[in-house]
Predict the structure of Myo-inositol 2-dehydrogenase.
Amino acid sequence: MLIHDFDMLDFLSGGQIPESVTATGHSYHPEIKEIGDVDICAVMFKYPSGLIAMVDTCRDVMTSASRPLVSENELTSTVELAKADGHRMPSAMHSFPQRYLQAYRSELTEFIELVRAGPESEMHRLEQQAMLRHPNVVRTTITAEMSWKQGKTVNLAELMSDTPSAGYPA
């Protein structure tokens, strides 16, 4: 559920690999629990630079004004109805292209520019270089899942030296 958050952390941290990862989660919905997954979780990362980051997610919609970085879905309206029995917000736009129209436009524009620049261009070289960070994101994701399943903090250095052939990307 958090792969995009992990990708964003990788980008924001300048590609640092966390020293340790601690994850916890719970399954409130029986059908999620049956498949061995969680429907709410939180993951904390400690980086060599001293950066500490935490991400959380829930399959049920929750919002909080106390979070420093929050991505909210675009709503069908900006009108919020406040009544004695509570506040009512409009629903989110139905599809991803509706909710993230500008992001889709930007992505398509960048893709067209990349194709036009050609495979030998500096732009293409930089895109290829940026793609090299993805193994770190996969490594972090696997570590977070291990932490959740084992119920303890996982130190990446120990994990990488102890289990290089256990399906963990080196």
Summary: The chain is about 40% helix and 15% strand.
